[in-house]
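Moderator note: this is an archived Q&A kept for reference. The question asked for a predicted structure of one protein chain; the sequence and the answer are reproduced below.
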Amino acid sequence: MRELVDLSPVLTELGRRFSAAGYEVHLVGGSVRDALLRAQAGGDGIHGDLDVTTSARPEQVLELLQGWARSTWNTGIAFGTVGADVQGERIEITTFRADRYDRESRNPEVAWGASLVDDLVRRDFTVNAMAVSLGPDRTVTDPFGGLGDLLAKRLRTPGAAVDSFADDPLRMLRAVRFVAQLGLTPDDEVVAAMTSLAGELGRITPERVQVELSKTLLQNSPRAGLELFVATGLADVVLPELPALRMEIDEHHQHKDVYTHSLTVLDQAIVLEMADPDAGSPDLVLRLAALLHDIGKPATRRHEARGRVSFHHHEVVGAKLVRKRLTALRYPKDVVEAVSRLTFLHLRFHGYGGGEWTDSAVRRYVTDAGDLLPRLHKLVRSDSTTRNKRRAAALSATYDSLEERITQLSAAEDLARVRPDLDGNAIMEILGVGPGPDVGRAWRFLKELRLEQGPLDPDDAEAALRQWWAAQH
């Protein structure tokens, strides 16, 4: 295995310095795993941040780095970790550890390990429990069969899975991420432990849960990870609205499986996102909206005549649920508002029938979407998961016509900034009023008029304003 990992000059020099001082030093964790995957795919070298473990204590590590590292930082020194910037490469160097966990708080009781194997056994998964010596012999240490698991696409823990996850429940969400990121399949013991300990995720802070969930969603193919997330009950603890989409389908009330539909919408949205050279990819906002856009359906489901099922106003209910859940998971306010807005707007397109888009309807669609319009285009197109090819083609053609209408109207008007034809100062002068609520109401009237009729010349706008004002008094 060692010939697959081409060490950088920085790591080679690091190994020389520590070995000369009589200390063991090894490259570990994701750095080794990813280098092996790249080598298998014909790539080369070690990339990204580097994780190193050593028999040296933190104070000895700092001494060895002095005069060589550009800078060091000690934020993790209580846990045995020293960070360093060496020739532009970020390295985290951690003393061998053999921690035990306080299973109430999940905080580790830091203890120095006596050997590399002591350190590796406490790691989350076997594929992250491999090490390559940075000393002259480049010894490979793989005591738990991590390389075999990596090649077999298998996810296992170094020790008993139930003990590993009880020590640190966040590892269960990391398992979800590695299924999505690396295409690994968890073994039966891992799945059983995740299922039995799902409730332990309640010990993890929302911020840390959110980080892991986001990392999963930002992978190229997150679906398998999300299916594990739901199947093991983890989602019931931290995102219960997702498994709630698995609504019963009976012989009398046939309807689409909303859970499967939502995963398919996510798949399709990712394809559109990655194909758009102007879009930032990966796009967390679009992916959250694709996954959660229908979470208002369970609360709004109604059985109608002749076996029909309705979900009236599920976009309104869904927008509120999205805002509540993402806020609880400590997502930034701008992300919460954007995902909620997309959820609210995702059905607007279907309200315009067969594509006879009036200028007023186009203006309102663009204005309500604002800077979310490119994402709304992708979400709406992805929301078509019908197997009926004729219906799918008709929906696509109708949306094509909408985008054409937007382009045509944008060429004649500034749809990105639809504003009243008179500003606040002009309104006050015409109406003879000072600043206050009346000005706001007049401004909103003129904006509605602008959306309905398009740009007006100042005289027509003034006449309409005076007529409106007279009707108010």
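Archived answer notes: The longest helix spans residues 389-412.
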